[in-house]
Amino acid sequence: MTTNGSTKTAKTATQNACKLCNPLGACLAFRGIEKCVPFLHGSQGCATYIRRYLISHYKEPIDIASSNFNEETAVFGGSHNLKLGLKNVTQQYKPQVIGIATTCLSETIGDDVPMILKDYKAIMGEADLPTMIFASTPSYTGSHIDGFHTAVRSAVQTFATGGAKKNMLNLFSGMISPADIRYLKEILKEFGMPFMLLPDYSQTLDGGPWGEYHRIPPGGTPTSAIADSGSAAASIEFGSTLEAKKSAAGYLEETFGVPRHSMPLPIGIKATDRFFALLEELTEKPMPEKYEDERRRLVDAYADGHKYVFGRKAILYGEEDLVISMVAFLREIGIVPVLCASGGKSGLMKKRMLELIPDLDELEIQVREGVDFVDIENEAKVLKPDFLIGNSKGFTMSRKNELQLIRIGFPIHDRFGGQRLHHLGYKGTQELFDRIVNTVIEYRQNSSPVGYTYI
Amino acid sequence: MDTQNISLLEGRQKQVYEKKADGPQGDIACEKTSLSGSVSQRACVFCGSRVVLYPVADAIHIVHGPIGCAAYTWDIRGAVSSGPELHRLSFSSDLQEMDVIYGGEKKLYKSLIELIDQYQPKAAFIYSTCIIGLIGDDIDAVCKKVAKEKGIPVLPVHSEGFKGTKKDGYKAACNALMKLIGEGSTDDISKYSINILGEFNLAGEAWIIREYYEKMGIQVVATMTGDGRIDDIRRSHGASLNVVQCSGSMTTLAKEMEEKYGIPYIRVSYFGFEDMSKSLYDVAEHFPDRPEIMEKAKEIVRDEIRQYYPEMQKFKAALTGKKAAIYVGGAFKTFSLIKALRTVGMSVVLAGSQTGNKQDYKNLKEMCDEGTVIVDDSNPVELSKFILEKEADLLIGGVKERPIAFKLGVAFCDHNHERKIPLAGFIGMYYFAKEVYESVMSPVWQFAPRKGGAK
User: Are residues A111 and A152 part of one domain?
Assistant: First the structure.
């Protein structure tokens, strides 16, 4: 299983996974819809573990309901529990939307959730019910990122309607930080074009204090906006490995003829240029001066900091789309990402990376899908990178191998403020660049006996 | 949203009680599975097993199922080890769709063989998750086969998430431990010996407790499971007394050991000066033929309290009159916390647990002040309703409760398994008071809406 002659390890089991399960991504996406409660059809533990996990990063109350399977449910089917659960969650949370995702348990017993929901609506009378979105997310397929996209696509399938074209844009921004979402919204506003960004958990997962408990936190993409997405002028969808047949923009293109513009997450100057060029084209307006400024500062910073980073070797890991976009950025500044790894398994990672970095093989950049942290660690022993870039899950191996870790993405549960980190656009790239340069400087300063005060 | 309007769900009313002289006097309903759709703070059977066995540090813990359950419990507890740290690794058979269809036995077998070869553990625990029973994997047979081939105990833990509550998971864990107990030599075990049960060595707490007992001249044979070792567990039937903390998880084991090996047990708590002292005295009383044990216990209590008393008075002066809410896993801990809070002048306005039993709640009712609300298996909506209504200044709970407190501008003390500061023992009481003081007295709350801060 291992390449490059690294240590041979037993690899049937997954050890220290570099991925999470499918329903987690769905819950996260559902949190980005206004007045929506995520609901997991399965055991109580799934909801509780996922809540706990999301809280460790976002530091916000995250209520996820569960249909709370018991032995009878598993034998006779989850219909009764699901209906009772929907009734209870409706009574207690008064949601406008319930985002239902399945788990390995309900999928394995073969519950036909759409049928159960139909039945529930017939019994309860549809008029007063919240709208129910259903996403099939068995944890034995894919990983959290698949659940995320499935939920977003399901939301659009549920709400989008066709009709006369509107002067508006859809932006499916993928699994990014609340800070990134806020920045994207600001950009779209500056272009002066109405838009629908989905899912928008910028406030629901990074909001202010409450005087009273909010059963559902304020914020999220309004369902009316999702409904309009079917008549938008175009969709922009971030994600290199996300295929049209699995994506929300793909559905809108196929069903309502809304053109889908798919592009990698805009990290780095080239990718961000591409994003702004696309916005200029779709809005027929020039890039606002403010972003020209941001770009100029970033180019200037690249010059000021280039010597610190040139030729440094990094190992990158995380969701495939994040890794691909990060690699493109690292190549802009002269860093060699010796290993690009993901627990995801789209089969497309290397292909997409080659499109952005044609000299990938010449640079001996390894791309590995479906790996865990033991694989990554084994590679690290051979590749001897200068640092790691990825989420907090890499800390164990970073400590053991004395490698610095630059934290990006999700989850970040051993540093403060992960939800407020920027990754996207000129601003996000600037922040990432500053952090990477400072990591190198800090290392040099700490490891030098001189104690340089200027460096 | 108006918290006054939050009503309790049908099916939950009997699990909530307010102590009033003229109020209803019935028992609190408990030990029920969580209500579907109620957003319980509980986890599942698997969680119960996983937390109990997790600290056994020289065994490997393999989660058989799709990736989620292993991913969410990777290095999740602050249970530290003085030696091997195999428990901090996460192993999963990471079942995929084809495994679900054709069965996961082969994959489990191969995983086990490889992992045992790679890590050379003293034993292996195999946790079955939700779908294992459904797909018909015979994990007992696999475990037996591997045990025979590898010559180490390979123990199945039947912890399918939906088959009961967290308590059933405790039982499954105790069953696995029972299979180890009785296998080792008891040769050099003194008559004056104990096992420490239900102490998980969070932040090194077991070491603190162990030191007290050893100072008293008592041999500690095994701690279960904090800083746990397979060989210690195997010979733990040689101890004269089982000292059980966290009664919810380990009383089953103590009872079984009493039945099978005639070892009596006592229930103790190490939280707060009062209960900590009592747990030393109670053990000393068990060995009346050696009065110096009691003498030593008294000396420890005297010295320790003398050391921390002055600091405690400072905390008490600041905290007197402040109100606390408690929502933790086991009810037994609640009793200690109520007493500990009284030591620093605080009263308790809300007390509850995920897994308390009838007797626990009876005791709780007696202990609590007039007006205190008692809840079993509560949820965020209820908790926040009562925190606000009762004007609590502090919430004691775990990770999932923390953001509720902080959102509402309420201080918080983490008394769950992720804590990094020891709260057990005399020194633990000092840290507890210090943590409560530092959170309650923080000036940041002045900006919270409920304290009149700007909205």
Answer: yes
A1: in domain: no
Shared domain check, B283 and B159: no
Q: Does B325 touch chain A (CB under 8 A)?
A: no
Q: What's the structural domain count of chain A?
A: 3
Which CATH number covers residue B199?
3.40.50.1980
Domain that holds residue B436: 3-26+309-451
Per CB-CB distance under 8 Å, the chain A contacts of B34 are 44, 66, 68
pLDDT attached to residue B453:
73
Residues with Cβ within 8 Å of residue A327, at least 6 apart in sequence: A316, A337, A340, A353, A356, A357, A365
Q: Identify whether residues B284 and B314 lie together within a single domain.
A: no
CB atoms B71 and A104 under 8 Å: no
CA B343 to chain centre: 23
Specify the number of domains making up chain B: 3
- E strand or H helix at A336, and its extent? strand A336-341
Residue A333 lies in a domain: yes
Tally Cβ neighbours within 10 Å of residue B119.
17
Asked, for residue B36, whether it belongs to a domain, the answer is no
Judge whether residue A384 has pLDDT over 50: yes
Chain B residues inside the 8 Å CB shell of A103: 130
> Judged by CB atoms within 8 Å, which residues 377-396 of B form the interface with A?
379-381, 384-385, 388
Check CB contact of B348 with chain A, cutoff 8 Å.
no
Compute and round to an integer the Cα radius of gyration of chain B: 23
The alpha carbon dihedral of B50, B52, B55, B58 has a sign of: negative
Q: Determine the structural domain holding residue A407 and report its residue range.
A: 300-447
pLDDT at position B76 is 87
Percent of chain B surpassing pLDDT 90: 77
Q: The tokens of A157 are what?
A: 């399938």
Do A443 and A311 share a structural domain? Answer: yes
The reply to whether B396 falls in a domain is yes
Spatial CA neighbour of A426 closest among A305, A322, A271: A271
Q: Which of A114, A138, A159 is the last residue of a domain?
A: A159
A87 part of a folded domain: yes
pLDDT at position A74, please?
87
Distance from CA of B270 to the nearest CA of A (A): 26
What pLDDT does A273 receive? 98
pLDDT at A10: 55
Of A52, A86, A104, which has the smallest distance from its Cβ to B37's Cβ? A86
At B331 the pLDDT is 84
Sheet arrangement for strand A36-41: A65-66, A36-41, A97-102, A131-135
Kindly state whether B449 is in contact with chain A, defined as any CB-CB distance less than 8 angstroms. yes
Structure-block tokens of residue B353: 């647990």
pLDDT in tens, B21-74: 777 667 788 877 788 888 888 889 999 999 999 999 999 999 999 999 999 999
Same domain for B62 and B156, yes or no, is: yes
